[in-house]
Design brief:
Blueprint lengths: L10 E4 L23 E3 L11 H6 L4 E2 L6 H4 L5 E5 L1 H9 L8 E5 L6 H13 L4 E7 L4 H8 L3 E4 L9 H5 L5 H14 L5 E5 L5 H10 L3 E4 L1 H4 L8 E5 L2 E5 L1 H9 L5 E5 L4 H6 L12 E5 L4 H18 L13 E4 L2 H7 L2 H10 L1
Parallel strand pairs: 2-9, 3-4, 4-5, 5-6, 6-7, 7-8, 8-9
Antiparallel strand pairs: 1-14, 10-11, 10-12, 12-13
């Protein structure tokens, strides 16, 4: 369907005409079962077996990357374990799963029929197992995911900060439209599947808008990589060259005001392929770069929760069920966004200072 689609910067949430919420801190619950509606992206420069507990303790949902072996990850509690489609099929065929596990079938192309067939078969053996799959970029695919018994669907292809899929292949779907359309299909058909918006979250408002448009959860990678606590390699920059430093030195220098940089990379890069033992390297659809550490995890969480609560108060939503996919919004031109966009102005002021 060749209709014009929209992204987050084209969307603004419309406040309710009159709101009855008096306090965004006392009258609003921004949690799903005690956790914020966020997932860590399964990236080896965000979270792994060394720091996952820190993210869990911050009321986040953790999805481990495929670089954490299944044998290790399966011993951890309250986390999603990422496996390739081939690994998932092997685990199913050899009866190595159980009803208590949470599994992410992590594939670049979530539209493969083999995903649906494998999950459907697995659910006949372990009906209580929790399965997430994706990514998809066709909103109607959630109908097929629901039939297969998949519990969570990752939506979004090519928008992630470490992903070049859309740039190199031309496959994608405007993220805000994808979330909204998938949410409407879910609602119209009474589906139970949870929508996880994955990729391209550049700022707090992108995440809040994703939830408002209908995502049950949002998966965050690049923004979490820029936390002091992420598992990305720590580097300092001297005369334009990056030097790796350990966590003790990192924390000391950060607290003294020095700039710290984190290595960040997409999971389809050749670096990651080598780390996972691939004998034949595929064409990379990811990038490697260094990102400056901008905040601690606790500070980021504090800010995000405050912004989410604020938007929910404008929308007269006292809980996520009343907020997700239930708010009014307008679609605007880029000129409208630029009129209220303060980032460029702030950067200019910072440069002058």
């Amino acid at each position: 369907m060749n209709t014009l689609k929209y992204d987050f910067d084209n969307v603004f949430i419309t406040p309710e005409r009159i709101t009855t919420i008096k306090s965004r801190y006392n009258d609003i619950n921004p949690y799903h079962n005690g956790k914020l509606p966020l997932f860590t992206a399964p990236m080896d420069t965000v979270v792994d077996e060394t720091n996952y507990q820190t993210f869990l303790n911050s009321k986040l949902n953790v999805c481990l990357p495929r670089t954490v072996p299944f044998e290790i990850a399966s011993k951890m509690e309250k986390v999603f374990i990422s496996v390739s489609l081939e690994k998932f099929e092997d685990l199913v065929n050899n009866r190595k799963l159980n009803n208590n596990l949470k599994i992410l079938v992590d594939t670049a192309n979530g539209h493969l029929i083999t995903i649906l067939e494998s999950v459907k078969f697995a659910k006949t053996i372990w009906p209580q197992i929790t399965i997430m799959a994706g990514n998809i970029a066709n909103p109607y695919t959630i109908l097929d995911y629901e039939k297969a018994g998949i519990d969570y669907v990752r939506v979004g292809i090519g928008g992630g900060g470490g992903c070049l899929t859309a740039t190199q292949t031309g496959v994608s779907y405007a993220m805000a439209s994808l979330i909204k359309e998938a949410s409407e299909i879910k609602k119209d058909n009474g589906l139970k599947i949870k929508i996880v918006a994955d990729g391209g979250m550049r700022k707090y408002s992108d995440i809040v808008k994703a939830l408002a448009l209908g995502a049950d959860y949002v998966m965050v990678g690049s923004l979490f990589n820029k936390t002091l606590e992420s598992c990305g390699e720590n580097h300092i920059k001297i005369f334009g060259t990056h030097f790796k430093v350990n966590s003790v030195v990192t924390n000391f220098l950060y607290n003294k005001g020095f700039e710290i940089f984190k290595k960040f990379r997409g999971m389809s890069t050749k670096e990651v392929q080598k780390r996972m033992g691939a004998k034949v390297l595929k064409t990379a659809e990811g990038i490697v770069r260094y990102q400056k550490v901008e905040y601690t995890l606790s500070k980021w969480i504090e800010n995000f929760e405050s912004y989410l609560r604020s938007n929910m108060s404008y929308s007269n939503s006292d809980n996520l069920n009343n907020f997700i996919g239930e708010v009014d919004f307008t679609i605007n031109t880029s000129e409208v966004f630029e009129r209220i966009n303060k980032w460029n102005t702030l950067l200019k002021i910072k440069t002058l200072i």
